[in-house]
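Comment thread on ticket #2218

A.B. wrote:
> Attaching the input chain for the structure job we discussed in standup.
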Amino acid sequence: MMEEATKCRSLYCAAFEKAKFMNHLVKNPWPEEYEDDAMEKMRKRHVRMPDTGVNEGVLKRIGEVFSTMPAEIRVHKRLATTLLQRREMLNMRMVSWALAEAFAFGTLLREGVHVRLSGQDVERGTFSHRHHILHDQNGVHAPVSALSDVFPGQAEYVVCNSSLSEYAVLGFEYGYSLENMRSLICWEAQFGDFTNNAQCVLDQYISSGEKKWGLNSRIVLLLPHGNEGMGPEHSSARPERFLQGCLDDEEGCPSVGKLAKPHFPMHQLLDCNWQIVNCSTPANYFHVLHRQVMLPVRKPLIVFTPKSLLRLKEAESPIDDMLPGTQFQRVITDNSVANPAAVKRLLICSGRVYYDLAARRAKQGLQNKIAIIRVEQLSPFPYDLLWMELRKFPNAKIVWTQEEHKNMGPYFYVKPRLCTLLMRMDDPRHWDIGYAGRGAAAACGHNINHKQQLERFLTDAMII
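C.D. wrote:
> Ran it. Output below, let me know if you need it in another format.
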């Protein structure tokens, strides 16, 4: 034991000495956003949300490197199959979640932005989907970083596994993000609910650091989330807790006139304390990571990431959704409906539950009677886009649908804001917003019961 402790201490000391001479990170000058009237200047300039699409040649270059086996090492046979599947997807111009993340990181590295990813088992990915570090099965050569040498002169990419000490690691990454202002600093929990052990960092620093000390951070939290029968310990990333910490008022919906202005989304970001998103497509995941660095203001980003969607065929994105002229979609509309006026039921949801709802709707042949829209950005709440969606379906009963239990998830955050928006629109439907989902309980860990709950709420959601 003493020998191992001495070896570990030697490694730490050597890394500490090496860090004294590292010069690849350049501290940015005092940023514009720290000026006393910086926020007001941005309001007057009417800054809009940036386009975050990238040239296809750049994406193909990243994809080719990311799907190629390094010549100098022998990778595991299962990983070789994964790399081959990635190459086949590229040939079909389709993108998985792992490819979308690599596209985002690779694009930023090419633009000179330092990217750092830490957390529990992040090199491989908890669900064995990422594989950013490739190991030689012969044990002869050093591990290879898949994204460290994609473009000449690119910025440094650091990916490192961390211990199960969420409080310490997240605190370090938050501080790191404050010192490296134009970097993408990501921390991923092995499962979303592991943030329980870092709650004080979230409450005291990340959610409130800007208001208390004027400290702005671009830190990104990647939190695997989804009720998929794994029980209370590994299902929910507790979106309700993050939404309760948002700096907004449920009765603070602006007038309809303000909602129509193109700079409204950016004004919302200027006022918020953090952003909360629940992406349902790889393309949107790519855009929100790229957007995080391109935004003129630095706000923490909370991303509820998928588990089963990582390999779901229906959840892949065409590469066209990431090309120039595209950007993060805060709300994804339902373009499959031929006649919106004939829709009888409007399901509003967020995240992976969309795919369950869409499959059930198709099975029952209700595509012309039920519309499904996805709220990808939960906070700041997309009043402007939902205003347009609600007007599009004037005769539909509005129902919020979620996979989480009723006492969890976004329901108690979303419902009053939908109510306020409908009141601003003089729409009488604000009295009758429905709910379709699980009842109040802890996440189910028994597979049969889990499937029964899913069947019940999908049946409820399709009632016309």
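A.B. wrote:
> Thanks. Noting for the ticket: The first strand starts at residue 94 and ends at 95.
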